[in-house]
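A quick aside before the break. I want you to see a complete sequence-to-structure record at least once, exactly as it would be stored in a machine-readable document. Don't worry about memorizing anything.
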Amino acid sequence: MPRARVRDLGITIGRMPTGPNNAITDIPGVLVGHRTLIWDVPRVARTGVTMVVPREGAIWQDHVFAGYHSFNGNGEMTGLLWLEESGTLDGPIGITNTHAVGVVRDALVAFGVEHGYVKVFTLPVVAETYDGWLNDIDAFHVTKEHAYEALAAARRGPVAEGNTGGGTGMRCHGFKGGIGTSSRLIESRSGRYVVGALVQANYGSMRHLRVDGVPVGRELEPRWAAPSPKGSIIVIVATDAPLLPVQCKRLAQRAAVGLARAGGIGFNSSGDIFLAFATGNHVPAHGQTAHALQMLPHEHLDPFFESAAEAVEESILNALTAAETMEGFRGTVHALPLEELRAIMARYRP
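That is the input. The structure line, written in tokens, reads:
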């Protein structure tokens, strides 16, 4: 059957309603762009770049509060020391493969300088997962121009998932993985807000895969012998609520709940790194005077925590159900078999 999102298969994750695109782009002003690299000569490329761009690109002048959480730290996300120190994110977020982090990081610096956004310095946030099974990672395919093209492609609306952008060569729970996204609408005591997530999923053993609590991986494993990566996953969580940095950090931590529900346990070799940002406050890049901020009471955050867990879980599953079988550098990685998935779910949930 054709590839689909998990809800298209009749599987509903959680109880909270999704936004219109069921994507991180349901947060107003958040854009996503991909640049996908696929070729076989002179060396095999199955890789790319994904960009998450807050404030429709005005993030360079109007920063957002942010926080991060390292569930297991065998990976890289640049810029985190200053993000932790300042509590702010001042540019787009890049996601790519392990050996392209520096190139994409430098490209974001150059882009900011060329457009006059960087007045003194910038320390961009760029994250990675390893795609060396399908991609000849030592060929260093990703260039500055590819990063620029991902920025130029950043759009509102539906987000391409699976074998796209930074997720092109990724594997998840023994099947083809990659990019996935989801969102939730929140009715809190402070008002109505949106929480969205985007993942680059490249982690996990097949036996641990669960879909809405059903042990799908355990059912599939006897029929699907496949090399399983033990890491990693990058998660970006976003909201339009006026959260402060400490609250963003708390929101980022809840990504671990969604990962666990899908079957992630944080292997020793995993780089499971999560970042959350909130667009509800405006933080001028070069503010000269004090400015007013808002915050939600901590007691109002439970719906945000629940929605983050649901959105991350569904994002991972969307990455799996959208991704297609891919042949690459060291062999073939098969897509999650959707007919078998539906049959398994029907046996457990008649």
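Two observations worth writing down. The chain has a mean pLDDT of 96. The CA atoms of residues 273 and 288 lie 34 Å apart. We'll return to this after the break.
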